Backbone:
């Protein structure tokens, strides 16, 4: 067994053509890249997007600045690939975001009232996120569903930091406006 | 304004909590495919970064696919056929793939194969002449249907995380064609499943069953859902259909045993 190598070392070796070192990066970031692709709208083609992104990332390793974190750099390529895909499909990735349907785990929503309400609220929240304009939806996905910082989001989406801030704020306001008063009560006073 | 910050914070934390519950399918294992492509690239390009050869050199799959596409296009252009614009382009494991619009779907609500019989997996294994493979990645099918007196076995998975998934199996390496597909050729790519050639067809297309007499069964004509992977083993040919990405489909195919 080879010992785990850190990202910087793996990148350095991969640049030299070491495919084993690159395989370590692929293994480390596949799940994260896939989640990003899926939530940004690649849907059932997320695996393809991930594969394409890793191949492109390898080709562009020479542009990667040593010492920079690998994850946002990779996710930017993933976001780009996803964008190309959804553009070529000429439609927005509908239903990209969803909660597991109650049947899928075999349980019906018969838990305590709080849980049922929380589940309804989340379903409504997800539905509201899905209806947001594309840019606002993407910024929320990056910030809250992929847990990226504002600076990382700016890098991944290739936007100025100011746009990330203003679009996030606009998206949150719009979401608040879309949730029904009952949900607002739940969210903001619960 | 403090009030505004409060509701924003609440909404942000609700979004973060929701994030953990979002339904995201598991990632397919892309490492083998990525490696294969990088090795293939290294074999044909001398650009940076240079790749040290792995244990075995693989053929550049995309190149083979491209040659196949060009050859097929050549056939397409070279053989003007009397009937319609349909031209035979590809054959693999009992499936013939043609480029063209295809027939109109069956007028019946549900297209079906001739003589469909629902039965247990165990019984189905006795009814057909080939070994029925079950993809371990999907587990036991919800339903098994044997059609046309044991010529085709279909495993139906009604509720997977990808929605409905269908696996049609039939005796492999047979000359007769069992299915005709009508696709746009640019949606077809060549893939490798367990060292054998397979075809990945992106997007829905017309599918029609061809009976023992070689006559297409119009009642079977239907539009497929999602994407399709076709591949074969020594004894059996398989057709996997569903809303699956290529990586996921390959993982499922590789788990068939």
Residues:
């Amino acid at each position: 067994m080879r010992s785990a190598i850190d990202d910087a070392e793996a990148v350095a070796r991969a640049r030299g053509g070491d495919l084993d070192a690159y395989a370590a990066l692929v293994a480390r970031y596949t799940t994260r890249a896939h989640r990003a692709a899926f939530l940004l709208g690649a849907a059932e083609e997320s695996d393809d997007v991930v594969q394409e992104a890793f191949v492109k990332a390898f080709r562009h390793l020479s542009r990667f600045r040593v010492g920079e974190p690998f994850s946002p750099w990779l996710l930017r390529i993933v976001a780009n690939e996803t964008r190309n895909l959804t553009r070529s499909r000429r439609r927005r990735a509908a239903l990209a975001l969803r909660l597991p349907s109650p049947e899928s785990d075999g349980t019906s929503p018969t838990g305590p009232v709080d849980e049922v309400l929380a589940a309804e609220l989340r379903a409504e929240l997800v539905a509201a996120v899905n209806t947001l304009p594309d840019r606002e939806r993407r910024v929320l996905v990056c910030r809250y569903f992929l847990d990226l910082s504002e600076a990382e989001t700016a890098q991944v989406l290739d936007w100025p930091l100011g746009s990330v801030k203003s679009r996030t704020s606009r998206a949150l306001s719009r979401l608040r406006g879309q949730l029904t008063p009952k949900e607002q009560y739940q969210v903001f006073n619960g | 304004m403090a009030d505004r910050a409060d509701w924003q914070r609440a909404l942000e934390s609700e979004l973060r909590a929701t994030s953990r519950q979002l339904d995201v399918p598991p990632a397919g294992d892309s490492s083998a495919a990525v490696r294969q492509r990088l090795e293939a690239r290294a074999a044909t390009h001398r650009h940076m970064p240079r790749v040290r050869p792995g244990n075995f050199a693989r053929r550049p799959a995309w190149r083979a696919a491209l040659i196949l596409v060009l050859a097929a296009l050549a056939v397409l252009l070279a053989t003007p056929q009397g009937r319609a614009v349909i031209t035979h382009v590809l054959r693999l494991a009992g499936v013939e793939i043609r480029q063209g619009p295809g027939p109109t779907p069956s007028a019946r609500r549900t297209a079906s194969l001739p003589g469909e019989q629902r039965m247990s997996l165990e019984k189905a294994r006795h009814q057909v002449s080939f070994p029925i493979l079950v993809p371990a990645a999907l587990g036991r099918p919800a339903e098994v249907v044997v059609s046309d007196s044991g010529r085709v076995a279909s495993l139906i998975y009604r509720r997977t995380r990808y929605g409905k998934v269908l696996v049609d199996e039939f005796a492999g390496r047979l000359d007769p064609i069992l299915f005709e597909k009508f696709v746009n050729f640019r949606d077809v790519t060549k893939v490798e499943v367990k060292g054998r050639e397979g075809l990945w067809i992106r997007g829905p297309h017309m599918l029609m069953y061809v009976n023992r007499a070689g006559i297409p069964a119009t009642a079977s004509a239907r539009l497929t859902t999602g994407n399709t992977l076709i591949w074969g083993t020594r004894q059996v040919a398989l057709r996997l259909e569903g809303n699956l990405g290529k990586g996921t489909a390959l993982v499922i195919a590789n788990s068939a045993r």
Notes: The CA atoms of residues 53 and 78 of chain A lie 5 Å apart. Confidence is low (pLDDT under 50) at residues 103-109, 183-190 of chain A. Residues 104-189 of chain A form a domain with the Arc Repressor Mutant, subunit A fold (CATH 1.10.10.10).
